[in-house]
Design goal:
two-stranded antiparallel sheet; 31% helix; six-stranded parallel sheet; 7 helices; alpha/beta
């Protein structure tokens, strides 16, 4: 509601029966996140926009061990969100759009040992990124649409990075 930052009762009644919820993050508050993370039947969440969570809001994500699917698009706190979820979650599918693949974000992704599907949209690829992702033991699908393989006309991915992808034993789709 407009007063306390939670989802209005009539909307929450409908949403609380769903297994997957997508929402624009611009209007998301810690109170809304508290509602979403308390929904034990929710296994997937899509957050799109410029949500700026407080530390308390990010801590709520530790209450989501049931999450299997997460999509983050345009969020400045992508690495913090994944780090918070990694402590308790069994995410199997992660989709990230438009984030910079920083060492911190890459480390957060690598904490999901049960990850089966990873989609990174609109990122700059490097050999190191692919080499690090090859450490995900259960990854079956790696999708990199709209990703760029160059910086200043110098290839960032060489045979070394592609060899790392080829070495991924469980990878079925690239």
């Amino acid at each position: 509601s407009e007063t306390d930052g939670t989802v209005p009762a009539d909307v929450w009644k409908a949403a609380s029966s769903m297994n997957f919820i997508g929402c624009r993050a611009d209007g998301l508050t810690d109170a809304t996140l508290r509602q979403l993370t308390s929904h034990r039947g929710l296994y997937g969440l899509t957050l799109i926009g410029k949500y700026s969570a407080s530390e308390d809001g990010l801590a709520l994500l530790k209450n989501c061990p049931h999450f299997e699917w997460l999509t983050l698009s345009g969020l400045p706190q992508t690495d913090e969100i994944l780090t918070a979820l990694a402590e308790s979650s069994e995410l199997k599918t992660i989709m990230i759009h438009g984030a910079t693949i920083s060492p911190k974000l890459l480390a957060a992704i690598l904490r999901f040992k049960n990850l089966e599907s990873l989609t990174l949209i609109d990122i700059d690829l490097t050999d190191d990124t692919l080499i690090q992702l090859a450490r995900l033991p259960n990854l079956r699908m790696l999708s990199l649409p709209k990703s760029r393989n160059s910086k200043d006309d110098n290839p960032a991915v060489s045979d070394k990075g592609l060899q790392a992808v080829k070495s991924m034993e469980n990878l079925k789709q690239f």
